[in-house]
Prior knowledge:
There is one protein chain. By secondary structure, this protein is an all-alpha fold. It contains 13 helices and two strands, in the order ααββααααααααααα. It has helices at 3-42, 47-62, 85-104, 112-119, 122-133, 140-157, 173-204, 208-217, 227-239, 246-276, 279-301, 307-326, 336-343; strands at 67-68, 77-78. A two-stranded antiparallel ribbon has the order 1-2. The longest helix is centred in the first third of the chain and has 40 residues, at 3-42.
Amino acid sequence: AQPGDVSKAAVATSLVDYSLILSLVFGGCCANVWSYEHLLKMDASLGTTLTFSQMCFIALQSLPSFLTSTPRSYFPRLKPRRVPLRRWATQVLVLTSGSLLNNWAYAFHVPLTVQIVFRSAGLAVSMLFGYLFMKKRYSLPQIASVAVVSAGVVLATLSRPSAPAPDAPAPPQRTYALGVVMLTVSLLLSGVLGLLQEQTYSTYGPCWREGVFYTHFLSLPVFLFLVPDVARGFRSLSGGPDPAAPAASLAPHLVLAANLVTQLACVSGVNQLTSRVSSVSTNLVLTTRKALSLCFSVWWFGNGWDAQLGAGAGMVFLGSLLYTLVGAGAGPAPPRARVAKKRAQ
């Protein structure tokens, strides 16, 4: 083959690969946000059932990669671990608690538009924890960018959600405040999880696939204490909008399945993106994806939107882009597993 032909083939292959990756990121992640909000609008108290389903699905999907068979046994067994089980157990408690709080917040009248903006404050939490516990130092432009993000999150959070209907009462302020507290604790737990994972990967190497499997697999026994909530959620899904119509009763389960599959597609796309392009390019793509998810949520579900929420969201996305452009020279990039898990939401 001629060198020119090889070069053209490589470019064509690269374009196909990037098209697939971007399709997974934008299509998978945006569809995941849509299915997530659709489920919670069916029943705002589905948070426990949704968290259990996500944990179970990811654990079962990852399980075959960690099984091995031996001539002396008829049953497969788990492959040897690179990381001691006690390290994963600590991360399980943090991950499960944060996921539950995050999914419960919707039942306390915190709309998804506010949640999308609020989660972007993870940048500020990562910087604070990096400064306090990892002895990292940040430049003045980085600090200014995070200050803009933080101010935007506060502004968006203080924009009270409007009532779902003109004649419906507005959500109680105390209930909304409790939902914001849940999101705040979840955000702090995400920062703690990041520190634990960074320490683990720096000690035992980049074994993020093992981390994804064990943190989800070991979280399943936690739901033994939440069986009534999980069962009530599945009964709610089975009831559907019209139990007499089989298609209507099946629809909620299809939306749940779509949520699980699109979450897997989103995480896969983000992992592939981080392995092929710079962190700057990754952050630009993911910030754009969050903005699209926010706009789609407002358009499709008719979520309340006012000038204060718009200004706060604009400050968050602008600050995130500025932080990306000035570069992250304060230390190594976070492990991919944590990045993908957080950004997939």
